[in-house]
Design goal:
CATH architecture of the largest domain: 3-Layer(aba) Sandwich
Number of strands: 16
Mean pLDDT: 90
Helix content: 40-55%
Largest sheet: 14 strands, mixed
Number of domains: 3
Structural class: alpha/beta
Distance between the termini: 38 Å
CATH class of the largest domain: Alpha Beta
Strand content: 15-25%
CATH topology of the largest domain: Aminopeptidase
Radius of gyration: 26 Å
Length: about 625
Amino acid sequence: MTLADYFSLEETLAYIQSLFDLGEKAAGTKEELEATNLIEKEFKKLGLENVHRESFPVVSRNYKDCQLKMLEPTVRTVPCVNGGTSVSTPLEGVCADLIDAGFGTVKDYERLKKRGVDPKGKIALIERSDRLTSWLDIFCRLAKNLGVEAVIFTTFFSEHRAFRKDAFLFAPIPVINVPYKVAQSLRDKMRTQNVKVELKNIIETNENGVSYNVMGELVGSKYPEDIIMLTAHYDTWFGGANDNASAVAIMLETAKILSENFKPKRTIKFIAFGAEESGSKNFFEWSVGSFEYVNKHPEEMKNTIVNINLDIPAFGDTVTLRTTPEMTTFVKESVKDLDLETIFKVTGMPITATDHWSFVMCGVPSVNFGSHTPAYEKIYHTNFDTPPNVSRYLLEYSSKVVLSLTSRLDSADVLPYDFLPTAKKLKNDLFSRRVKARGVIDISRLLKKTRKLKASIQEFNEVKSGEIRKNIRLLNRSQLEVCSLLNRHVIGTGDEINKDAAWVVAEWLDMLVKLKTAVETLQNNNLEEAIKSLSSLRTMNWGLNVNLKVYNQTLDLMTKNSRYPGIYPNVMAEMLSLLKKKESKKIDVSKELSSIETEFNDKLAKINAKLSVLEEIVEESSQKLMQMI
């Protein structure tokens, strides 16, 4: 029998139901604590060692009364839910006329004003658009800036239900969510009649809340200091059967199978994280438990040979396995050996939206199981995320892949990392930009060292399974150090936060080239090209959809408080000024040219410094690999 043959669908579904029955498990609430107790008890029951919990501070929100009542032209109750992380209304609620603010952009409000509608003192109905931004609090900030009293969100994904997530993050105004069909009926009424509503959004917020990470382990017999880490978050919006009770259930079932039928050579650690959905005082307020854990255990991170994180692993018809690049070859081979290539899509591109990003930031080799598909949006963060909507098929096969990855990594004496994808991507990014970057920044030294790294990796791959085995311990330590060096310095959040993680070198170079182009075109009074170049530099796709005050306020919050730092050019003011000058046909752009030149020189200095560090990292990685040959 293989380990996968011990999988029990009935036991896994029972775990899901037990967690689901606790209800909404928001960070720091008594329901989340009940889930903590349940998981800790189960870890002990399964015979795991060193079972314990660790506390950490969170912002805790208890979602209480949420009501929306139409007062005019008729009186009726409208179905709704509280918006996540928004502020509370007074206990008596707010009462105001309802306005249709479209998608909530500055242009939408301008159109309202042209029709004689002043948003001040009103309640705005806004349709969410991920195309404009996934950061709904930005449009809440704009609404507040324009004097709106409260916001009602809807989305075309929510046909007959309402989302909890639609106020993220830290909306400075009361927010509720209504089903899409309900929103359209309200819009129909507003076209011909005045609509007045009463809105209540009562949320108890505790700035001094507490959440927990729960852990247990199977201690290895041969390499106990090496850690294979299986993780999943257990806090939820609503009952969260898919997000994320299914993941915790797979982790518990895996722990049961391994504890009863497997004697690991390496230590296998199981961690259930609290406060993944919400709970930080930081602008990026998710993945709090994992972030707290990796920062509390830096030495453990150095010994973690892989983090396998589960987040929505059993919905729809496919599961995406997002890996750090050195894990891609191994994960693809494992999926192929199981003949599951049609179900599991492997990509060497981490994601910032789950707990595995906390490990990526530390340089830990990582794999994330997820199913964030358009189809899932229909139940994502709603009370329709129930046990019947969990795929039994994917529950079983995600479990099989987890067991396969775990057992294969445990049994491998030489860790199966492949650094070639990293070196190839880095070299291709540099080579393809060498002409455009010429005269802007010198990348020749880094390109030369990257070619050397690629050659070293190719030579290392040829010999590491042969005579090098006599130095297995030293070899694996060196490989882990290379993982940490490369992952921490070549993987970043990308040019739009909360989008898929990017290769930061390509982003930096493209940014510099576009800034330089803007400078040169302005010197030639070519406004069209300058605006086009600056437009492509907007760090958020919402840049032109809010006013300058909201843009700068949000960007300031992100860059000063981010757990995901980047290099963002703030060119919004210059761009708006250029647009106005273009419209008024004034072409004296000396002030704008000076400002953009300053921005370019600042970014050039910072990126030169970062590329110098990367040169050292690439050289050090190459040397570590060659020492083992």
